[in-house]
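This is your field. Have a critical look at both lines of this record:
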Amino acid sequence: MRLLKFLTLVALFAFAVGVAHADDTRTQSGGGGGMSPVCGSNVFSSNAQGVINFDCAVTSQSSGGTGMLFSYTIEAPDSADFGALNCSSFLVTVDGWTETQSENPGGIDSCTFTAPKYVTPQVYLNIATVTGCLQWPPAPTCDPYLGGPTLSTFVNDGDCDFDDFVLGIPVGCDLIIDNFNVFNNPSSGISPFAANTNLGDSVNGISLPALPEPGTLSMILLGLASLPFVRRKLAR
């Protein structure tokens, strides 16, 4: 019986302090010290328990990013995800994005999330519901989508939550990829991925990175770490 893995894809506030606190405990590629790597084409890895926890910053083209994010793909070796990669996201259930999966036995499995071109009445209703607007008085969290149905009339109020993701994820927001909570429970004895598995991601249709074998990255790093010693020896 194949074990299904679930990934929760969420965009969070991108305020500097919030990002710094979130990043301090994350496994990330190119980040560290409270800095998120730019969303693009990255390689990251699961931890010793097989759990992934990675984030990246949606960045403008002028700052080296891809601009507003309209699609996101995550990949994992089929051998390391126990035969199936099933993904889930609030972007799909609330904001009307589509999600497609590709399974390649013995190869690389992937999931792709794509933003819609048009905001449907159902999405307007979804956002009003989950943010607590459909009650009287409205909940303090009430934050309906007030913009138009297309990108030319899209409204981003800048707080990086449900109403800001209906047609894409704006520059300035952070994208977090995390294992679904049921698999984060150590007492369950279930690992969503093999330990120290290399995974990849990409945005806006750019090429996914080639995934190295699990031991390759550490070997490369070990080789790079030895270069100063080699240089010193040759200089004598």
